[in-house]
Specification:
Distance between the termini of chain A: 92 Å
Strand order of the largest sheet of chain A: 2-1-6-5-4-3
Number of strands of chain A: 13
Number of helices of chain B: 8
Order of helices and strands of chain B: HHHHHHHEEHEE
Structural class of chain B: alpha+beta
Radius of gyration of chain B: 17 Å
Structural class of chain A: alpha+beta
Distance between the termini of chain B: 29 Å
Strand content of chain A: 15-25%
Radius of gyration of chain A: 40 Å
Number of helices of chain A: 14
Strand content of chain B: 15-25%
Order of helices and strands of chain A: HEEHHEHEEEHHHEHHEEHEEEHHEHH
Largest interface: A-B, 26 and 19 residues
Oligomer: heterodimer
């Protein structure tokens, strides 16, 4: 039969946080780690429940209650400093030797190890705490590296987006790309034409069927425009429902007119979304580089009068063609939508008072986006 | 190659020899002015070019340099983390040596895609050991020697290390622990700096 001294040694080695109590709940011995956590406390000879309160199950108030919990998990709290909470289990010993209340730090082990300067000697050799600490520390190192990488990548992504030439919703080019293409075309003095397309009744789709339907329509419209153009042409979404198509080397009015007509016809086909039918249309304004090259550009004079811009400046050229296409677009809208108009210089005179404010607003936006 | 390797080389050169020499090395290796990310993966040939440029720039045998890299990784104050993780291996230097068998698995716990060569410690009498290092990460054995040397200082152990050479299966390091507690060493608190 094991004697009590030997039993004490066994408990110390296997459970350095254990309390050994006698039949009445008086402490006979506490493990070295528990004593290290409470260096000031004289445990032996006092009742265990003087030092520890059972938080759960709540009904445990006496030694008899405690004995009934035998083998199941206890949540306990120290009544004296440092007042930490512990996990515990109560197990009765045979031969009237009393009982063992074994304790552990539970999830607070990370704080406990730091606060009480515990070392691996304070845990049983088979205890997983050291591995747990290792894991925690290695994972937080890896996590920190990950987080700082994410911050750097996010910065890079924002920078890349700012420089992007693509409209993320439709996959078409964006306003920045349009400026880039126009700059290139004017720099090499290539003949080209620019088609400014604005969806009609699109706002109704958004308002009645919601933004998801609106997005679907925009993506559908984008596909049609890509379908109807050649690979080298530029198709861009430059605003909510505004598109610009640039045809490199194509200035033939007949061809451009039929492209515009085909586009409008296809866009007027009803689009189904989630069982609903959306019907839209489009108005188109077309400007041809050679025809607008030396025309005066609508300026930014506050009174809406047309200001002269000197010939030859590339920037003025491509700002001009955007503006002239916009003027033609306005004429198409005024003509009852669902149609296209070529820009002609007399539009600048005839409709000046009506369209100038819109032209000015658009010009400013175009300038901002550059 | 795991970004940690390239990043370690970058950190070693910059902190030991300065940014300028690192930049010169990158140019010599034809890599441009790249900033290595520890969490990325790079092509193996980039690391090979780096190592070649390192030997040329420092005008020393690569094996010596890699041993310095190992020492640097454990002893530089900025890299306290790695030293701490290694110290979890055991209370004493011999305990630490015995934990080396688990090192590749422990490393994988922290960084799942880091594949370190297998390590196998043989213990002989009188504190003599032989460490078999698997192949697959060129130069790893020399780097490990640097780590073992610096960890001996960390534990305050007096040891002799020797590279015994390699076969087609593994490379070997002999380790003689002359005195396990020769000096104070550096302190290690289990719960020093989490969070």
């Amino acid at each position: 039969m094991i004697d009590l001294g030997q039993l004490k040694d066994v408990i110390e080695k296997l459970c350095p946080m254990a309390i050994w109590v006698d039949r009445c709940g008086h402490i006979r011995h506490v493990g070295p780690t528990l004593q290290k956590v409470c260096p000031e406390t004289e445990f032996v000879g006092h009742r265990a429940l003087e030092f520890f309160r059972v938080i759960r199950p709540r009904s445990v108030l006496t030694m008899q209650d405690l004995a009934k919990t035998s083998g199941s998990k206890l949540h306990m709290q120290m009544r004296m400093p440092p007042g930490i909470t512990l996990k515990g289990v109560f197990v009765e010993l045979p031969d009237d030797a009393g009982a063992i209340i074994n304790l552990s730090f539970g999830i607070s082990v990370f704080d406990a190890v730091r606060d009480f300067s515990l070392s691996s000697k304070d845990f049983a050799p088979t205890d997983q705490t050291i591995e747990l600490l290792y894991l925690m520390e290695s994972k937080s190192a890896a996590m920190e590296a990950s987080r700082s990488l994410n911050v750097r990548l996010q910065g890079a992504m924002i920078a890349a987006e700012e420089q992007a030439f693509t409209d993320t919703l439709t996959g078409l080019k964006n306003r920045r790309a349009v400026n880039h293409v126009l700059h290139r075309l004017t720099a090499v003095q290539r003949p080209y034409s620019l088609l400014h397309l604005d969806l009609d009744y699109f706002k109704d789709v958004n308002d009645t069927l919601g933004h998801a339907a609106g997005d679907h329509v925009l993506q559908y419209v984008a596909r049609i425009m890509v379908d109807e153009t050649r690979e080298g042409d530029t198709v861009a979404r430059i605003g909510g429902d505004e598109f610009v198509l640039i045809f490199d080397g194509l200035t033939d009015r007949g061809q451009l007119g039929s492209i515009a007509r085909r586009l409008i016809d296809r866009l007027e086909q009803p689009i189904t979304y989630g069982g609903q039918t959306c019907t839209i249309s489009a108005s188109v304004g077309i400007a041809i580089s050679a025809e607008v090259r030396y025309l005066p550009v609508p300026g930014q004079a506050p009174d809406g009068s047309v200001a002269e811009v000197k010939d030859g400046a590339d920037r003025a050229d491509f700002n001009a063609i955007l503006n002239f296409a916009d003027v033609a677009l306005y004429e198409a809208k005024r003509a009852g939508r669902g149609c296209f108009r070529f820009f002609s210089p007399d539009m600048l005179v005839s409709g000046a008072s009506a369209f100038m404010p819109r032209v000015l607003v658009n010009r400013r936006q175009a300038g901002d986006g550059a | 190659m795991h970004g940690l390797v390239n990043r370690a080389l970058q950190s070693f050169v910059c902190n030991t020899y300065g940014q300028d020499r690192w930049k010169r090395m990158l140019d010599a290796a034809g890599l441009g002015q790249v900033e290595f990310e520890a969490m990325f993966t790079y092509e193996d040939r980039i690391t090979e070019k780096l190592l070649a440029a390192l030997a040329t720039e420092l005008d020393r045998p690569l094996d010596d340099i890699l041993e310095d890299v190992g020492t640097y990784l454990v002893s530089h104050p900025e890299l306290e983390r790695l030293r701490r993780l290694l110290r979890f291996g055991g209370e004493t230097y011999p305990d630490f040596l015995h934990s080396l068998d688990d090192l590749p698995d422990r490393a994988r716990l922290a960084v799942p895609d880091l594949d370190l060569p297998t390590l196998e410690l043989r213990e002989y009498t009188n504190g003599d050991y032989c460490l078999n290092c698997g192949l697959g990460l060129p130069g790893f054995t020399y780097t490990l020697m640097g780590i073992l040397r610096a960890m001996a200082d960390d534990y305050g152990a007096l040891v002799l290390l020797d590279y015994l050479g390699g076969s087609e299966r593994c490379e070997q390091i002999s380790i003689s622990v002359i005195q396990s507690a020769f000096s104070e060493g550096r302190t290690f608190e289990l719960g020093a700096s989490h969070g």
